[in-house]
Fold D-aspartate oxidase.
Amino acid sequence: MAAPKVAVVGAGVIGLSTALCITETCPDCSVTVLSDQFSPNTTSDVAAGMLIPHTYPGTPIHVQKQWFKETFTYLSAISNSTEASEAGIHLVSGWQIFKNMPKEELPFWWDIVLGFRPMSAAELQKFPQHRFGQAFMTLKCDCPPYLLWLEKRLKSAGVQIYIRKVSDLWELHSEYNIVVNCAGIGAHQLVGDKKLFPIRGQVLKVHAPWVKNFIRDGDGLTYIYPGIHRVTLGGTREKENWSLSPDPGTTKDIFDRCCSLEPSLQAAQDIEVKVGLRPSRQCVRLQREVLSQGGVKLLVVHNYGHGAGGFSVHRGAAKEAAHLVGECIAALQGTSSRAKL
Ligand code: FAD
């Protein structure tokens, strides 16, 4: 058969990294990215991009750990290369702190991040409201530069990129053999997934170059994540809230919470407010599906629903999606050789 034509719907971190993995694992494919929005207008642009996994209750822990490990290894190599500053990837050290002892003293990812250890009493003195803490070094993506870097890699691999809103995956069946759905929260409408819901997050991006260490309250609500140029201050987690408008009361609340952990932030300047909708599900939807109408079939691979942790697992999930695309190609080749007999 001719080179299989694959369309990837979505240009957030999941769509772009999935398209890149497909070009790496299936070099004979013709790959196209279709998306109604690109950087800087995706949820992925709003994210802090810290590699600290979120737990998906419906996805086995060993699978989540594998995705995180592959992502960490991939980004470590970039951070250790001449590409690091263009790709916006860097190592950052800091603390995750708890007011009460966490249920699990060791998170499942403790041996993937670097130098994980309990904080000393002297370190905890900085946080008088907190009784326990974990110190470690992890990676951070500065999200818009990383998305642009991925786009650049795709273009040099010959991937076509088009602005296009897809109303129904079936509309692509006459142009493509395989469609990969990486629409994030857009999958709610695109494939009518009622198990997918938004968790609204509001963050502030500020100029505070003296802040070098990350601080994350273990409840996941308040965090300070220094990037290469800006520091991300968070945040909120508002289930089923679809509003993309920043709320001024929330901005003040986030700022006050972060200043109570890091008082020097009172001098932060150039405050920008961003809102994004985390595409949340009990489990990431990473699976094959066959759509068919009137005897005509369209092979689909879904890769969406990464909620609060898309950056932390994107490369591992993208590799798995590319593997599923490989299975679809094998199925297509089997069908075409049987048809010739
Ligand atoms: P998106 O970035 O939303 O991309 C979806 C793409 O699909 C877009 O390009 C969109 O235009 C396109 N699309 C949708 N529907 C259609 C359609 N019908 N036709 C064509 N195109 C379509 N994760 C971490 O790991 N670490 C963090 O520190 C972190 N911080 C976060 C902070 C906040 C405030 C938020 C909101 C999220 C954070 N996340 C973090 C989570 C992370 O942002 C998401 O998991 C990730 O961005 C999801 O990526 P995505 O590509 O699936 O979605």
